[in-house]
Amino acid sequence: MAQEDIFNRKKANIKKLIAYGFIKKGDCYFYKRYFFDDAFYCIVEVSDHVACHVYDASFNEEYALIHSSLSKGTYISQVRESYQALLEDIVTHCFDDQLFVYNQTMRIAKWIEDNYHLKPEFPWKTNQHAIYRHQDNKKWITIIMYIERSKISKGEGMCEVMNVKAPPADVDRLILEEGIYECYHMNKKNWVSIILDDTLEDSRIEELLQQSYLLTKSSKK
To answer: What is the pTM of this model?
Structure first.
């Protein structure tokens, strides 16, 4: 399991960090731990994200091989297993589960619940993607996906994306806004995608969600 996957959808609990042994320095919390018979040590830094670095204890130099896919063999595999067990123990004792990866996604999810009294549904086995839909007609208001950033924009790594429905006449104009892209996975004529990394302000996303809600609700007879 990749390091970023271990902390995926987890939120640091400050009280638990301190109880575990993390030390606050400035706005960050640090923790140092030896592992694999003290041959290596790991420094974990927790702020608005988690950074972990592994060092060879004999030389006090960062041990880059632990993250290299080219490094194979019994020894490195055992080191990785020990390192993963260390991180999983930290997650178990210091972090709480959260529904989504990004802080903005969590804020938007709360806004949807407060305004429409809807909770996310996770219809797929991986729980990587969530939908919000109307209770009467079951139409989707939005879908939130955890995908590779390169699928909709420049950049590497994973990102959380929200699709919202828009009037076809507005789509070309909307995708000119920073943070809004051609729709991934759904009809590009009727939907747009938003990366929920705070590029677009919450208030603007809420406006687009309100529009998506209206466009997908049942028509009055």
So the answer is: 0.76
Q: Is 67 exposed, middle or buried (0-12, 13-18, 19+ CB in 10 A)?
A: middle
- Specify whether the CB–CB gap between 190 and 172 falls below 8 A: no
The CATH code of domain 103-216 reads 3.90.1150.30
Residue with tokens 């060879």: 56
Which of the four pLDDT bands, split at 50, 70 and 90, describes residue 49?
A: confident
Contact 9, 99 (CB under 8 A): yes
Instruction: Give me the residues paired with residue 162 across strands.
Output: 144, 194
Domain ranges of the chain: 3-97, 103-216
Half-sphere exposure of residue 172, counting CA atoms within 13 Å on the CB side? 1
- 77: its two tokens: 């595999």
Residues in the chain: 221
Residue 55 main-chain phi, psi, to 5 deg: -125, 145
**DSSP state, 29?**
E
Q: Given the structure tokens 């991986």, which residue do they identify?
A: 126
- Find the mean pLDDT for residues 178-182: 97
Encoded tokens for 155: 């950049």
- Of 1-15, 42-56, 68-82, which gets the smallest average pLDDT? 1-15
